[in-house]
Amino acid sequence: MGDEAVLGAPSYRGPSDVNKSKRNFLIAATSAVGGVVGAAVAVPFLISMEPSARARAAGAPVEVDISRLEPGAMLTVEWRGKPVWVLNRTKPMLESLAKDTSFLADPESNASMQPDNCKNPDRSIKPEFLVVVGICTHLGCSPSPRFEPGDASGLGANWPGGFLCPCHGSRFDLAGRVFAGQPAPINLEIPPYYFLSDTRVLIGEEKKGA
Ligand code: FES
Predict the structure, then answer these.
(1) Contacts of 162 (CB under 8 A, 6+ apart)
(2) pTM of the entire structure?
(3) Which residues are annotated as catalytic?
(4) Can you tell me the distance from the alpha carbon of 195 to that of 147, in angstroms, rounded to the nearest whole number?
(5) Residue 93 — φ and ψ, nearest 5°?
(6) Which one of 167, 188, 189 would you pick to mutate in the ligand 1 pocket, going by the greatest count of ligand atoms within 8 A of its CB?
(7) Tens digit of pLDDT for each residue in 65-114?
(8) Number of helices followed by number of strands (H, E) in the chain
(9) DSSP letter, residue 181
(10) Listing from the earlier edge strand, what are the strands of the sheet with 74-79?
(11) How many Cα atoms occupy the beta-carbon half-sphere of 19 within 13 Å?
């Protein structure tokens, strides 16, 4: 693994956090992930990352502990200056991916960016864990998690749960697949990654020999 950066304090978002953000779009849009969450943990993050700053600048892989990531929760880590989300998808979340996909622009991810071993409906190595770059493929805003499906989401009865980009309204499902007719042209990017163990993921590198 060499000199990969090890993140000790990723930003966690549990299901209750997500429900709170759902009630207010503007708050959700500005507090969800990426820069704002990064700012909230800026001091401990910078201190903990100080020894690895050079490695991070060079784009070294990032090792993430997912042992505390409960079903339905998501954490955010930084890799190459970008937010990367790790979402522990529940069974209903996974089932939503298998329903009607006719509303998606690239359901098979043919035009989208992901490692070969993630070119599947879940866009993942292990179905329950989505690892995805949290940057909209339109103009680079960071979408907000809107996990609750249906009318309660405020996004219509057909909303399957997913992510909403606050900038120009692009919508993505829980595999980061973009809806058709949105400003974002392709699905969210899946970075290279692999599981070091059941509780640790290395983001930024594919398994050698895999
Ligand atoms: S940057 Fe996401 S919709 Fe424009």
Answers:
(1) 146, 147, 171, 172, 173, 174
(2) 0.77
(3) 168
(4) 24
(5) -60, -45
(6) 167
(7) 999 999 999 999 999 999 999 999 999 999 999 888 999 999 999 999 99
(8) 6, 11
(9) T
(10) 11-13, 74-79, 82-88, 129-133
(11) 5
